[in-house]
């Protein structure tokens, strides 16, 4: 009817990769308490723009337990991943009691917290040949394979990391994905068009954040990710969209983020400069919509459905 206005649909986001266990989200930087713990404010800011689900990344046994604790503290909003990051693969060789003890502890944690509903994915696991100085290639390969087998046993979808290792990464995944009905997601994707296409062909979803939107080549890859295979993340406190990134030009008409101040000047309600946080997921979705030539509502709806279908997150999939 003439004169009627249509209310815009409320956007819904899942931040599928957020490192809420990082001390900076508690006001601690390099071991020094600079300002008060503002984790609750960070989560509330995100909720205010429709980001109501958060997947807190586990990067080793300790951080996985910490992620589970945050999931326990924020039921219905925060969920954990459990696993050992490729750059931490050396932990298997230094763990008290040996590698088999660490694998057993991961199994016990994953099974118990899957049952309680706190853990929704096995990860962050994968390969990173850009940072072999942190964990050697042989160690990464051995423990990625072992953790993939553990994920199949526990029957959790995968939360994956791949850097400069596509051939080995895809080879190890191919023989196991048919035993994981809900597959998995390659997060913080920065690979080539060909790599993205191969991963999609394997049935995997692709996680996009600010690091996935740095260069014109990155943007071209994201443009071609099928909407039914895309999920959105911030990977905070890292991977913010910076003014120097190719994606920044698409933010001129985006709703501004809350004011950001230096950490020493912290005040309630403000972001911290250089500390990415979940509220910024709105800008990631905005850029994806712009480069794909679709509405942000369409991007958000697709990403939400993809995340719920794969990880559950206390919701029923469409």
Automatic annotation (TrEMBL):
Q: Which residues cross the membrane?
A: none
Residues that bind a divalent metal cation 1: 124, 235
A cellular component term (GO) from this record?
cytosol
Asked if the Swiss-Prot or TrEMBL record annotates the protein with the keyword Nuclease, the reply is yes
Q: What Pfam families does the record tag this protein with?
A: TatD_DNase
Residues bound to a divalent metal cation 2 are: 161, 187
Q: Does the keyword Hydrolase apply?
A: yes
Q: Which Gene3D superfamilies match?
A: Metal-dependent hydrolases
Entry GO MF terms: 3'-5'-DNA exonuclease activity; endonuclease activity; metal ion binding
Which BP terms from GO are recorded? Answer: apoptotic DNA fragmentation; cellular response to oxidative stress
Name the CDD domains on file: TatD_DNAse (cd01310)
Which keywords fit this entry according to its UniProt record? Hydrolase, Metal-binding, Nuclease
Question: Can you tell me which family this protein belongs to?
Answer: Belongs to the metallo-dependent hydrolases superfamily. TatD-type hydrolase family.
Q: What is this protein called?
A: Hydrolase, TatD family protein, putative
Source organism per entry reads Talaromyces stipitatus (strain ATCC 10500 / CBS 375.48 / QM 6759 / NRRL 1006) (Penicillium stipitatum)
What does UniProt list as this organism's lineage? Answer: Eukaryota, Fungi, Dikarya, Ascomycota, Pezizomycotina
């Amino acid at each position: 009817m003439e004169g009627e206005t249509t209310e815009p649909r409320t956007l819904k986001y899942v931040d599928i990769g957020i490192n809420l266990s990082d001390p900076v989200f508690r006001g601690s930087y390099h071991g020094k308490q600079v300002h008060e713990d503002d984790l609750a404010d960070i989560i509330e800011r995100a909720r205010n723009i429709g980001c109501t689900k958060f997947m807190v990344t586990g990067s080793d046994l300790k951080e996985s337990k910490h992620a589970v604790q945050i999931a326990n503290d924020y039921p219905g909003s925060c969920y954990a991943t459990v696993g050992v990051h490729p750059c931490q693969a050396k932990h298997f060789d230094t763990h008290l009691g040996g590698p088999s003890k660490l694998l057993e502890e991961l199994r016990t944690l994953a099974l118990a917290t899957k049952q309680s509903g706190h853990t929704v994915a096995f990860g962050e696991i994968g390969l990173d040949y850009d940072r072999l100085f942190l964990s050697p290639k042989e160690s990464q390969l051995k423990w990625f394979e072992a953790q993939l087998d553990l994920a199949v046993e526990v029957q959790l979808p995968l939360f994956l990391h791949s850097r400069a290792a596509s051939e080995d990464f895809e080879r190890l995944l191919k023989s196991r994905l048919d035993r994981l009905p809900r597959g998995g997601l390659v997060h913080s994707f920065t690979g080539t068009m060909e790599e993205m296409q191969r991963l999609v062909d394997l049935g995997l979803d692709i996680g996009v954040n600010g690091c996935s939107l740095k260069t014109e080549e990155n943007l071209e890859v994201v443009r071609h990710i099928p909407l039914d295979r895309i999920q959105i993340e911030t990977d905070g406190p890292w991977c913010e969209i910076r003014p120097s990134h190719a994606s920044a030009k698409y933010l001129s008409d985006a709703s501004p983020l809350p004011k950001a101040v230096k950490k020493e000047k912290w005040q309630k309600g403000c972001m911290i400069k250089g500390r990415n946080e979940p509220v910024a997921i709105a800008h990631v979705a905005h850029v994806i919509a712009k480069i794909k030539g679709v509405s942000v509502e369409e991007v958000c709806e697709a990403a939400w459905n993809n995340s719920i279908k794969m990880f559950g997150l206390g919701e029923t999939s469409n």
